[in-house]
Amino acid sequence: VNVVISLDYGGTAIKEGIVSERGKLLCFGQTPTGSTKFSQVANKLAARIKALQELAKERKNNAVACAIGSPGLISYDRKIIYTSPNFESRGDFNLYKALRARKVNLPIFIENDANVAALGEYWKGAGKGARCLILLTLGTGIGGGVVVDGKLWLGAHGMGGELGHVTVDPRGAKCGCGNYGCLEALASATAVVREFKKAIKSGEESGLAVSSEIGAKEIAEAARKGDVLAKEIFSKSGTYLGIALASMINEFDPDVIVLGGGMSPAFDLLESSMTRELNRRAFSKMVEKVKVIPAKLGNKAGIYGAAFLAFQKLSEV
Amino acid sequence: VNVVISLDYGGTAIKEGIVSERGKLLCFGQTPTGSTKFSQVANKLAARIKALQELAKERKNNAVACAIGSPGLISYDRKIIYTSPNFESRGDFNLYKALRARKVNLPIFIENDANVAALGEYWKGAGKGARCLILLTLGTGIGGGVVVDGKLWLGAHGMGGELGHVTVDPRGAKCGCGNYGCLEALASATAVVREFKKAIKSGEESGLAVSSEIGAKEIAEAARKGDVLAKEIFSKSGTYLGIALASMINEFDPDVIVLGGGMSPAFDLLESSMTRELNRRAFSKMVEKVKVIPAKLGNKAGIYGAAFLAFQKLSEV
Asked: Can you give the C-alpha Rg of chain A in angstroms?
């Protein structure tokens, strides 16, 4: 069978898989990224691609392409990673060229990580068959992807869909992108932890002790056990999320909004305040037609989506 | 030559024209809408369509369709006007059926007024050849339209592109749509007048006397003559506009943003604060590639765009 070698890398891990044309994930693995230098990451990506090519060969699969989900803005020709706050690179990095230089001999497709996650959820996840799907990955940051009639929305220069960087509160916290009050700065896992720590520091009480290892997951657990402060923090994130989604509904008129990323298991803690804002702020004719649902594919969405993109591109040739 | 009978109606006026396939506006006129009742408006639209059909006939033009730009959300099948705050209609109004009942015998194409204005500016105005064009009509309200590769962005249910109803300040002024702090509530002509009057009431000084007839136009004139308060009010609108456009740039990655509507002649008064916010808030890689420019077709954009849409739809059959 025809397969795609699919990779999805971020600041922490490189996920990898082999995906068949019909959307079977034939194997899946994960390794630490291990470096914040693009050239080192390219070394590792190239090595993993070759290892998976070997594996595919052993299994008598026909690897037709490799596909890579990458953080950051990507150039129109889908070769250069422009900006990615997690990596040491002042300028731009030509990942395509770097992989070719490292003897990757398959067709290479590079796409933004949230974009491939959106395609994955469209192909095999929560948003199957959606006409207009919006995905947000709620994690350390907030990524976004838009799929229209099965294809990625890329805008005029290939950089569209940065939905984590819409301004929700013009006077809000500073964001990694330089803006103030971005959705990412107010509703990401990072924001949840920051707000929790700030509240404790200012004298609010919680059953959860603040330590350096505390993360959104621990705060979510505390909230589920009834911790009032933890619940409030998630409710506030849900409010910001709802404000942003209401605007996106009025702009995009989607039929499905999928919430993925590390925070998506906390969907239940975000939902009521989020829904309240949607109902207050978006046109009811659009709100009543959109489903807002948690993602289904977890950390494999990007692997599926990158493969889907590669098969789609190859079939267009 | 093949022509389209094109109409564009709002709370105040019905604009009308005959447009050729190559985009010549063969005649143009304007009549008061005269009623806030949909059935009355339908009477008038039907009468104007028939009159223009006659005129086209006299001139030996071949009228192939009529096209109508309408305020409000429009149903997926483009027949029913769902909501339009300027008209007395609690429920939905089937404009298509109403025109057929009034013996309009041409193919009928109905589209949101800001959407047809966006198509008009794409076809014959400021945004010729744009890959991804965003248009905002800055008037009494703020409408929006998105054109991608020459086609309207309609979303999953035909209602997308309501760009005037993105939340810019969650705690901002109430909007006609029910939300708080929409772009429309903060940066429309209505908002400019409201903020000016409020400032005068609270004791601020201006060379411009407040009267009931004062409009955004008079305030713009005062600003150009150096009136400090009037300048500040426009600068604030430009700030809100910039915040909203920065988010749209990050979401849509457009190559052209066109500002039309009654406020567009005040572009010079909005521009500096708007540009400041764009540069502060949107990804520089996208901002440096987008042109933000005033509309070119004035109050005729919708007439051109509705005709373009009709020709486009007929060629798809």
From this structure: 20
